[in-house]
Design goal:
Blueprint: H1 20-31, H2 36-40, H3 51-65, H4 71-98, H5 112-119, H6 125-149, E1 183-185, H7 188-192, E2 211-214, H8 238-269, H9 275-300, E3 310-311, E4 318-319, H10 357-360, H11 362-371, H12 380-394
Antiparallel strand pairs: 1-2, 3-4
Helix pairs in contact: 4-6, 4-8, 4-12, 5-8, 6-9, 8-9, 11-12
The structure holds fe (ii) ion (FE2) (2 copies).
């Protein structure tokens, strides 16, 4: 199912994309708040107004705030909270199958075979998965707590917890919001962060690995017996190739999700008005980037010796050795972002990218996760609800406080 943005609203996808330079100018205009007053006053065009009307709008917008969050700030937080609930749901599935059981999370890591295959990427993968899950749960609980503390309604996606869990060992009986059984994992982030070009200026990137219609969690105990071990090199039989391909796909999906969070939070930060809300967005966003960096490193282990060469016998997903070409564009230990285009006329800079609405705003996030297959099986009401939150967040405009 496709998700359509409303082109009449500020900051959503538009039918005829603006040149990147104009997009960037639009962002900086927001940062200095040039259009904020008109937006909040519901006025369509500065040109249509006499000067006196503009000043009146400006004064009322500034004095009404006193540093308190604006409606736009709340819209940003509501969408981010929905995104965190979505993240929590997918990470909880990863943790229950492949995390590290502890007193705090006794149900984590219930599929021994999956855990072993993940540990071929890094022996600490189960711990990292459980910790990432903890972080997402804290993000959604905090943002909802903040909204509540300000007299705002909390965000819930519980009415959309309708998807059947995987029947494999570790799937449990709890219904899910997200679907990890047939993912199209966008792996273009791998090449994007190794490039000196920036998608905000129009650069595009190929897939590092083609992962289509691929499970990232075990989907059948018959296919992948949960008690098996996962030796390296990976045996050529169907069960071992299948389970390692599932674990490798999860490794790339972890990074895909978290780099998306890095871009989303950075983009939303440019729209926040209240300093307190900006603090929340920047502080949580930094942890999304922290996650991405970790998973970027682990994904590289699926496409280098000694693990490279796995092929899923059902989907055909293949994990080549990305070091074999000798190109820095794919070298697996070059995991820290390459300096790239950032602000025209200035030196290249190592930054999060993309950070424009069209590529990294809230509607872009919804569209990207939909294309990922994460919402396969969800209801039209789910898409309508999440898209509405996204449009409202994208429409937020930074004011001057
Ligand atoms: Fe998060
Ligand atoms: Fe995250």
């Amino acid at each position: 199912m496709t998700v359509q943005g409303d082109p009449t609203e500020v900051g959503t996808n538009t039918p005829a994309p603006e040149p990147p330079q104009q997009d960037l100018q639009r962002i900086w205009n927001r940062v200095v708040g040039r259009r904020a007053f008109l937006q909040r006053a519901g006025l369509a065009s500065a040109a249509a107004l006499p000067a006196g009307a503009m000043l009146a709008s400006t004064a009322s917008a500034e004095t009404a705030a006193d540093g308190a969050p604006t409606e736009g700030d709340f819209a940003i937080l509501r969408f981010l909270c929905a995104a965190e609930i979505i993240e929590s749901d997918l990470w909880e599935q990863y943790a229950e199958f492949g995390g590290q059981a502890s007193s705090e999370r006794p149900n984590d890591g219930r599929n021994h075979f999956y855990v072993a295959a993940l540990q071929n990427l890094d022996g600490d993968m189960p711990q990292y998965i459980s910790d990432n899950t903890d972080d997402e749960e804290s993000h959604q609980a905090f943002i909802n707590g903040y909204l509540r503390s300000k007299g705002q309604r909390e965000v819930t996606l519980e009415p959309f917890r309708t998807l059947a869990p995987s029947p494999a060992t570790g799937g449990g009986s709890r219904k899910r919001i997200t679907n990890l059984k047939t993912l199209n994992v966008d792996t273009s982030w791998y090449l994007r962060y190794r490039a000196e070009t920036n998608p905000d200026f129009g650069a595009t990137f190929e897939q590092a690995v083609m992962i289509k219609g691929q499970p990232a969690i075990p989907v059948s105990d018959q296919e992948t017996p949960p008690g098996d071990d996962a030796p390296v090199p990976v045996p050529s039989d169907a069960a071992h190739q299948r389970m390692q391909a599932i674990a490798n796909s999860a490794g790339f999906h972890f990074a895909m999700i978290e780099q998306g969070g890095s871009s989303l939070y950075t983009t939303m930060a440019l729209k926040a008005t209240s300093l307190e809300v900006l603090r929340i967005v920047v502080a949580i966003g930094g942890v999304e980037t922290n996650h991405f960096s970790l998973w970027h490193d682990k994904a590289g282990n699926a496409v280098s010796d000694p693990l490279a060469g796995v092929r899923d016998p059902q989907t055909g997903t293949f994990f080549p050795n990305l070091n074999s070409s000798g190109s820095e564009a794919t070298q697996t230990n070059l995991i820290l972002p390459e300096p790239c285009e950032f602000i025209p006329g200035l030196p290249r800079c190592s930054v999060v990218r993309p950070t424009i609405d069209k590529l990294a705003g809230a509607m872009a996030a919804v569209s990207g996760l939909t294309a990922d297959g994460l919402f396969d099986g969800q209801s039209p009401a789910f898409f309508q609800f999440v898209s509405r939150l996204a449009r409202e967040a994208d429409a937020a405009v930074r004011g001057i406080r």
